[in-house]
Amino acid sequence: MRILLVGAGGVGAAFCSIAVRRDFFEAVVVADYSLASAERAAASADERFTAAQVDASSADSVAALAREHRATHVMNAVDPRFVMPVFEGARAAGADYLDMAMSLSRPHPDAPYEKTGLKLGDEQFAAAGAWEADGRLALVGIGVEPGLSDVFARYAADHLFSEIDELGTRDGSNLAVEGHAFAPSFSIWTTIEECLNPPVIWEDGGWRTTEPFSEPEVFDFPEGIGPVECVNVEHEEVLLMPRWVDCRRATFKYGLGNEFIEVLKTLHKLGLDRTEKVRVGDVEVSPRDVVAACLPNPAGLGPRMTGKTCAGLWVTGRGSDGAPRSTYLYHVVDNEWSMREYGHQCVVWQTAVNPVVALELLVTGVWSGAGVLGPEAFDAVPFLDLLTAYGSPWGIQELDA
Amino acid sequence: MRILLVGAGGVGAAFCSIAVRRDFFEAVVVADYSLASAERAAASADERFTAAQVDASSADSVAALAREHRATHVMNAVDPRFVMPVFEGARAAGADYLDMAMSLSRPHPDAPYEKTGLKLGDEQFAAAGAWEADGRLALVGIGVEPGLSDVFARYAADHLFSEIDELGTRDGSNLAVEGHAFAPSFSIWTTIEECLNPPVIWEDGGWRTTEPFSEPEVFDFPEGIGPVECVNVEHEEVLLMPRWVDCRRATFKYGLGNEFIEVLKTLHKLGLDRTEKVRVGDVEVSPRDVVAACLPNPAGLGPRMTGKTCAGLWVTGRGSDGAPRSTYLYHVVDNEWSMREYGHQCVVWQTAVNPVVALELLVTGVWSGAGVLGPEAFDAVPFLDLLTAYGSPWGIQELDA
Predict the structure, then answer these.
(1) Scanning every residue of chain A, which has its alpha carbon at the shortest distance from the alpha carbon of B179?
(2) How many Cβ atoms sit within 10 Å of the Cβ of residue A133?
(3) Which chain A residues in 67-106 lie under 8 Å from chain B, judged by CB atoms?
(4) Are B240 and B146 in contact, with CB atoms under 8 Å apart?
(5) B283 vs A279: CB contact, 8 Å cut-off?
(6) Cβ of A381 under 8 Å from any chain B Cβ?
(7) Residue A260: in which H helix or E strand, if any?
(8) Residue A297 sits at the chain B interface (C-beta within 8 Å)
(9) A278 contacts in B (CB within 8 Å)?
(10) What local confidence, expressed as pLDDT, does residue B96 receive?
(11) How far, in Å, are B104, B150, B161 from residue B319 at the CA level?
(12) Closest Cα partner for B332 from B187, B191, B225?
C-alpha cells in the first residue's frame, strides 16, 4: 500500500503521527499546497513519509502526483470544497480513494429549508457506476463524523437492534481554550459550511431540509462531559446511513453551544460566511477565508485546550429481543491524552485515527469492495476492534427507552 | 471662497447637494481616490463643482491639489484614519480646514478601560500653536456629532444655564432598512472604530475611559422616535466641549440597539474589527475593510430606509434662574424628507448640512478665528438661525430636573 495523503493541515498531520506507529503500508507521500506544511508533517514521522506540493483544486495535479508515486490509495484530508478534484484525480490515476467529508451541497433554489437541492455526496454517488466498473473503491466519509458514527450505525443494526426508529448522530464536548475569546477546535471554513447550510433529515423514506440550528435538544454526553444543547446541522451521516441501514429517521445534531451559534448567525447576517470573492481596495478575497485567517489555527490550539470531545450515535427502536431500546454508542477523546500521546489536539486526532484504521483493514483485505461506499457498507466489528487495539476504545450506554 | 472637498462618499455627495443651493462660494473641487465617485458627485451639482483625483493618505497629494485649485478651505469628508494627512495638507497649502471627525485615539497601554492614552484630536491640538501663528483656522468636528451637538453646548451655556452639571450627547433613531438583515446607516469602519475603542468621559476636570458599551441607559427621543437604549461610546464631543464650556461631566451615549452591540462584540471577538492586514492566500487585506465591503454602501440605502434620526445634547444643571434644569436640545431628520428634498438618506444628510452652514458663516465673517477650534468656540445663535433658514429646524425639550 502506497498512500498519497492530500492535505497536511491539522487532520493530515495527526494522520501521520498515528500512521507512523503502524507497519501496514509501504509509503506515505504527504502533499499540500504549502510544501513547508507537507515537509513539517512528513519530517515528524519516519523515512516512509516524504513531502510534495500539490494543487488540490486540480484533478490533474492530484492524478499526476498519484501516478508519479504509484499511489495505491489517495487519502483526502483537505477542505471539502476540494473533494471533487481529489476524488476525480484519484480515479484518473487508478488509485482507491478515501475522504472524511463528501462533495458539497447546493440548497434547493425555491424551498431551501424544506426540500433538498444537490445533496452532500450527490456528485460522488453519480460516479459510483464508473468506480464500480473500474473495480476501484471510493470509501467516503471515513473520519469520525462521518465515519465512526456510520460504523456505529452498522454495528447497531447487526448486533443490537431488530428494528431502528432513529439513527441520531450526536456530537458534543466540554472543550475550552485558554487565552482566546473565540477559538473553534475545527476548521472554521468547514464549520460555517455545515452549520449554515440547510440541515438535512432522513424521514420515512426520503430526505428533507429544515432551518439552520433547528430542533434544539439537550443531550447528556458521557464521561463527565454532561448536558450540551445540540441543534440540527447538515452532515454526511444523514445521507450515508439510510443507503445501507434500515431506519425510519436519520438526524445529525451538533452541540455547538449558544455562543457559537450566535457567532455563526452574525457572520451570516453580515455576509462574512460567503465564499465568492469580494473586492477590497485593490484585491479580491473570499470573506470566509478572511474569517479563517483571523482565527487561531485549530491545529495549534492543543497545548492550551482542556476537556474531552465526544462523537457518537444515539439509536432508538427495538432491541434484538423486540423490546424498546435506546442506546448511545460513542467515542470520547480527552485532549490531555491525545496531546501527551500524539502531540495533536483531540478533535483532529479523533478525526484522523479512523481513516488509518480503515486503510489497515483494506490492506489486509478484511474490508474490500468496489464503487462509492460509506463506512456502513462494511462489517463494523473488525473496525471497532482495531480502533480499540490502537489504544482508543469506544463505549456504549443504555438510555431509558 | 474656493473649497477643496476631500471625499465623495455618502457625506461628501450630500454636501454637494446641499451646497449647490447656496451662493456663498465660488468653487468646489470634489476630490476622491475614485475619480468616478468624485465625478458623479460633482455632476449632480452645477458648473461651480469640478472633480479631481486625490490620495487622502498623502498630505503632499492633498496640498498639491489645494494649491493647484487655489483652495481657501479644505473640507475633509473621508474616514477619520485620513484626518492627519488632510489636516497637514491643508496647512501646507495655506488653506483653512474643516472636518467632521478628529484624529484617532490610541488606548492606554496598561489600563485601556480606566485611563486615556492618545486621545481623539490630540494630534491635531498639538499643532494648534502652528495654525494660530499662521493665522489660519482649523475648525474641527463640525458635522452633526461632533458639530451641531457642540453648538448646542455653547448655546446652553450662553442662554439656558448658569451652571452645567453634565453635557450628555445622546444619539438615537428608529431607522429600519427593508430587505437587508443588517445594514448600518453610517460608515461601518467609523462605527467600529468609535464603538470598540474605550469610551471616554470628562469628569471633575479630567478625562478617563471606561469599558465599551458601558452604563446602558434608556433615553426617550423626541418626535415619535421614543425610548432607545444608549451606551457609552468614544466620541469627539467629550474631548471638545470641556475645552470651551464649563461642565462637571461630559459624556456621549449612542442608541446602538442590542443587535448592533452584539454584532460589534462578535466582530471584535473574531478579530474582524482589526485594521492591520492579514494574509489570506496570496493577498493581504485589513479584516475591517472586508467587513465594510460585505455590507451595503450606507449612502445607497436611502430609498429602502424608513424612520427618523435624532442628534442632540442633554444638559443638566441650574438654569439662568438658578433652579435645577434638565433640557434636551436636538435636531431630527426624517429620511422620507431628506430623500424627497435632497435625494440623500437622513444620516449622511444630517452630517453634511452642518459644515455647509459653518462655511457660510466663515465666508461672511460671522464666525472667525485662528488655531484649532471646536464649534463651541463660536457664537451658537447665528449657526442655529442659519440651520433653520436651510429648512432644517432644531428643537428643545424640557425634562424633569
Answers:
(1) A269
(2) 10
(3) none
(4) yes
(5) no
(6) no
(7) helix A258-269
(8) no
(9) 290, 293-294
(10) 98
(11) 35, 19, 4
(12) B225
pLDDT level of residue A259 (50, 70, 90 thresholds): confident
pLDDT at B261: 87
Interface contact A283-B287, CB threshold 8 A:
no
DSSP summary character for residue B94: T
Using the Cβ of B278 and the Cβ atoms of chain A, whether some distance falls under 8 Å is answered with yes
Between A187 and A273, residue with greater pLDDT:
A273
C-alpha cell at B145: 456629532
Q: What is the pTM of this model?
A: 0.73
Higher pLDDT among residues B194 and B228, named by residue: B228
Domains and CATH numbers, chain A: 2-139 (3.40.50.720), 148-346+394-399 (3.30.360.10)
Statement: residue B299 has pLDDT above 80: no
Residue A391: CA atoms inside 13 Å, Cβ hemisphere, count?
10
Give how far A44 is from chain B: nearest CA, Å.
25
- CB-based contact, B294 to chain A, within 8 Å: yes
Chosen for mutation from A280, A282, A286, A288 (greatest number of chain B CBs closer than 10 Å) is A280
- Cβ contacts of B182 on chain A, cutoff 8 Å: 269-270
Range in B81-95, B191-205, B238-252 with the lowest mean pLDDT: B191-205
Please tell me what DSSP assigns to residue B213: T
Query: Over the stretch B247-261, which tens digit does the pLDDT of each residue have?
Result: 999 999 999 888 888
Tens-place pLDDT, residues A8-23: 999 999 999 999 999 9
Q: What is the dihedral of CA B261, B266, B272, B275, to 10 degrees?
A: 40
Residues of chain B in contact with residue A297, where contact means CB-CB under 8 angstroms, are: none
- Which whole number is the average pLDDT over A158-169? 98
